Structures are given as structure tokens and as C-alpha cells.
Structure prediction request, 582 residues.
Amino acid sequence: MLTEKTLEKIQQIQKNYHSKKSAVMGALMAVQRDSGNNLTREDMEAVAEILEVNPVEVQAVAGFYTMYNWKKPVGRHHIEICWNLSCSLMGAEHLISHMEKKLGITLGETTADGMFTLSTAECLGSCGTAPMMQVGDDYYENLTVEKVDKILADLRASS
Amino acid sequence: MEKILLKNIDKPEAYKLDNYVTNGGYVAVQKALKMEPDQIIQTVKDSNLRGRGGAGFPAGLKWSFIPKDPTIQKYLCCNADEGEPGTFKDRAIMDKDPHLLLEGMMITCYAIGASVGYVYIRGEFEYGAAKLEDAITEAYEKGYLGSNIFGSDFSLDLYVHRGAGAYICGEETALLESLEGGRGQPRKKPPFPALAGLYAKPTVINNVETLGCIPAIIEKGPEWFAAIGPEKSPGTRICGVSGHVKKPGLYELPMGVPLRELIYDHCGGMRGSKPIKAVIPGGVSAPMLIEADLDTPMDFDSMAAKGTMLGSSAVMVMEEGTCMVKVAYITSRFFSHESCGKCTPCREGTSWQTKVLHRMEHGEGRPGDVELLESLCDNIFGRTFCPLGDGAVMALRGALKHFREEFVYHVEHKKCMVGSDDE
Prediction:
């Protein structure tokens, strides 16, 4: 069930377009944000109904873009570390293995307490400050092992 | 040199409308609104401004393809899906100086007769999207957007549309599909977007950096702009430098500055004692160059003459000791991840290419793998629905052209020739 707040957001997004279907992406993101950063099949069906779009078209959109989390749930903090060329040249792999060890998980997994999910990302447009990662909405740049440790500790403390 | 695009980004709170105005902003749009739309298109044509997204298509010419019939709805879409690996220039404009982009869009919309414009921003740019949303709200409050902008007869609405993670949406027709709420898969051309774009209406799609040049061209005149840099690709360019240099970052320079000057004079040279091994001049799709090519000027035509491209002028610098098989693997992995799946040569070809490079990189290369890669390149290039597949091939061919022996070594010795794999 979508909340009043989410429904209002979706109404607002629709006003930006000359076609209801154009609001699918924004609506899915609004739902995801209001549901603990995850999307369910029911959410997609609800969006389809509101926007008068075939449910399979909404699922197709959710499946196409990497930022919709529906295949498996992500943790409270979704760490996405860039492993494209600029970040790799500056040592991204080293940071990935460090975080895997530190969190006791491998890429794509979530810690048992549901706190962190560790994923890789393709270029996030922050190449001059490589290596970098995104956690939720925030960019963390010019990373070192020490910085990563501090970020993880701060995130844990903030939860 | 006078900066056009990054002139405000180091100023405090440049993202605020009042500060943008204090810094001389929103003068050009008021001048433009007193001109005839055709006069603006001619001005941009005369400036020789070429699209900064990568292809370098003349911006004024693109605008002139839009039908003049005032009864037809028209759209402007700003391509802010910045995703070409190595590129981080548009993000700086949106984060720090969003009103520059809005002013460029206002002028462009007026010139082509579009009453609605969208900024298609990649989903990961949460900060930039919020800055743009705030800037748009400020502009509405001032009467710079909405009905009769700046007291003129022209009305305009601008919106932010956020992507959700897909490199392919930087391809203009995939962007339109995404804006219409679908999977971001490219459309067949023709019809071109100028005739049938968003909702099948005439649409111009321009990159952030391209639109960011428009206010200065209107304010200072096309001759002023055309006099910067080489005659055939004038203006300034934001070069985004990453990799093994001392001072990576964004550098706005006149077009045509040689790579050597960019790397040694502006970026302070290499970070350590190792010399340059290779440089990618325009995002990973652009074939790499070597030390001997460093005097090539950074403009569209000079780079094309070298068999590569200026692209997004995302310069990735690699020092001696960088494993080119690994570079090729990372690049190929990116393209196969981002292939939209619509056409077979790209969907199957890039993933096959990645599989071969993966085993080569991990000491499991097989005899004949280098030749297999070359044959894959031949069967992808020019046979895909959109340029993504070509990009994957150009990147790999560039590495093979200069460093084929490293690939052969990986297969024959099951290890790296330059020894950087133990990181």
C-alpha cells in the first residue's frame, strides 16, 4: 500500500509531463524512497494502476535501470563503489577487497544486521576525485583505506 | 583566458539566483528575447558552436531543422545524463552554477519555439538534481520561468527528469524513450528528433556544456566566440582529467590546446616518476593515444585525424606499468554491463568480448584469444543499432593497436607483462 505522502508525490510528478507514462520513473523512485529504499512487485502494480499503464511496462522499467532495488533488498546503507577505469587506476580494487574484509561480505551481499549492502557501480562522474563511492545519495571522494574506515564507522554510528 | 562555462564555479554560493545575477547572469536571455528567434539561430550558426556531448554536431544547424509552424508543440531536452566514463564536467555546472544552464535553455527554447524543456539528469546526481530543482523554483518566483518570462510574450516551463542508472540514456533517442517512461533503448533514425522526438514532436537535444555556451554567444556575439580556438571547432572546452596526473580535475581551456600542455602545464605532469604510457582523450569510447601523440590539439578535427575522438574531452592518463589488458577488460565490462540488449551484435558481442578479456586478465587466456577479440571487433563495429557497440570496439581496438604484445603475453605466459595485477 502506498502512503498518502507517496501518492501526493506521484500526483505532483505527473504534472511535469504531457503523458502519464512519463511519470513512471519518478513514481517508482518516489515509492522506493518511501519504502526503505526497496521496491516490491505490489509497488509496481500500484504505480501501474495510478498511471494507467500496463503493469508489465512498469516492471520492464524497474528491470532496466540499475537504481531500482527490486531483485533483492538492499541494506540501510547501500555502498556503491565505482570500479570503472579512473577509479580503478587510483586503486578501487584495493578498497573493494578492504571493504569486503571489513564488512565480512562479498560484492552484492548485505551484512547480516541489514546495515550495509556492498555493490560496485559503473562510472559515477566523479573521476577527478577518484577513487570514489556513493552511499545512498552522498558521494565520498578521494578515498583511502583510512577514509573508508571512518565513513563506515560514522554511518554505523548514525544509524 | 576568459572562462565561459566555469567562470562562476569557485565563487561563493554561485548556485543562487541573486548571485548569478550579480555575476552578470540573465542579461543574455533578456537580450535574446528582444531578437527574432531566427536571428538567434543564425547567431549560434555564425558562432560555429559544435555540440559538446561528444559528436560535435553544429548546434545552430541542429536547431534550424526544427519546423517553424507555431501550432506544433516543440521541446528542448538537455542531455545531462553524463555517463561516459571519465567525464565529470556537466556535473560541475549543475552543482555549482545551475542558472547558467537554465539561461542557456531559456534562450534555446525561445529560438526553437519550445514552450517546455526538460533536463534529463542521471539518477545518481542527487545533489545536482536538487540544485537544479531549487534554481528552477527561484526562476519561477522571479518570473524568469512560467508565463511571459521577463515580461515578454514568451512562456516557458522547465522540468527536471531524473534517470535511474543507464549509460545508454545518453544516446539521444534512448533518452527520449526514457523520458516517455520506458526502457532506455535507442530508436530507429530517421525520423530524427528534430522532426519526431519527444511524444513524436519536434525536439532538440543538447548537452549541458553546449547549452552553457549559449548565453555568452548571445551576449558577446558570434564573432567573439568564433575567435576562440581553431576556426572549425571554436570556443572553450572543459577538459576533465583523471588518472595518474598530479592535479586531476576540470580545466576550461580554449579548444585546440595540445594534450601535452594540458597534462604538463595545467595538471602539473605525472604524479610520480613513471612516464606516460597511454592517454584516452575523450572518454573510454575514444581510442587511446600514446606519448608520441601528445602534441595533438584537443579539438574535434585534430583528434579525428589521429583516429580517435575528442568526445566529452574526458582525458584519462595512464602511467608506465598500467596493464592494458586490465584496462581493456574494465572498459569492456562497462560496455557489456551498459548494453541495452536491443541488438544482437552489441548484446552478445560485448559480453563475449568481456568474457574473453576476463579469462585473459585472470591468467586463463587461450591460444587464439587475441585473434578472437579482433574478429569480435570486426563483427560488432558498424553492425549495431546505436554507437554503444562501436564505442566498445573503438576502445578495444585502440588498446590492441598500441599494446597487442601485452595481450599475447597474457595468453602465452598466463600472467601480466607489466606486473600491475598484484594490486
Observations:
- The radius of gyration of chain B is 22 Å.
- Strands of chain B lie at 75-80, 116-121, 157-162, 203-207, 236-243, 249-254, 276-280, 314-319.
- Chain B has three domains: 17-226, 236-319, 324-413.
